[in-house]
């Protein structure tokens, strides 16, 4: 029963969010073994106080790998802290090269490539009359984009993308030991692949994100130490995963919610000038990253609840974005809604440095779909099932026809 309850929560957390926002204080979620931070004001308070709410457990998954999986992972080079699991000076150190590497100028420079690849991918299935969008497009475009920014060779991108999904499955999704061991092997192979890139960029710097990370985290010359290699691989892997899985999820939910009611899609198709604000509404209405964990560093009072040091809290961006105290008609998906600040991409010190890149890819996707496939609609014979995860909320598959 506990597994069934957890699965139901992960696939549709919004009813629990609504209950928690109306309840006094914070609500404890047994399924997540954490206090749910559900209201917008409380979420923003946590994110403004990283000294009191540590990110050390931000990526705590719900599935502890068995010993055979841990043994396989020990063959890799990961395990070092990364930007989303660090605080203070360490967090600033890991974040700095990402801010530089994902600057507005970098995003503007890669936008023509995004548009070119979006058009090519959609044209590739435009004559078929039907498509499963997640596999044929939503997983492919963001992977190709982050691969290009990192400086990966094109032939390495599909392998890196698939291994990224295996990494997510290891800690955030259920599965048998055999499947988990196989996933761990793919993750280890990815780590060795990234290690090769890091060592080559040490000797031969280029104008790419991989070089940016290497020069920031391991300045100097000469062979990288084992510690430097582990740190570089961990942060490159985190950047790769965050750089495409979040965007993949947002593309999936954006298209889903626009097509749930044909009038929405018709309006967007006729009024492409609405699309930038529509992207914000998509992110607000169904945040791609629903929640991150935090750990209290001292006794604190939050939302009227006293928490001891070491208490686990689940900071629910998805719930904050449905808070009626912040957003009018919060449970309505409104393509004409004037953009208002939401927390789908975080807030404060840990705000996502790749948010603008994600926005640009979703904008270009919607513009290209509206132009090339104006008659797009959901396949009525293939109901949508959401993936059982809060970390990258997305349809498992999205079957479309036209």
TrEMBL record:
UniProt keywords, alphabetically: Heme, Iron, Metal-binding, Monooxygenase, Oxidoreductase
Signal sequence range: none
InterPro entries: Cyt_P450, Cyt_P450_B, Cyt_P450_CS, Cyt_P450_sf
Keyword Ligase applies: no
One Pfam family here: p450
Keyword 4Fe-4S in record: no
PROSITE patterns linked to this entry: CYTOCHROME_P450 (PS00086)
Family: Belongs to the cytochrome P450 family.
Entry-linked PANTHER family: BIOTIN BIOSYNTHESIS CYTOCHROME P450, P450, PUTATIVE (EUROFUNG)-RELATED
Record's protein name: Cytochrome P450
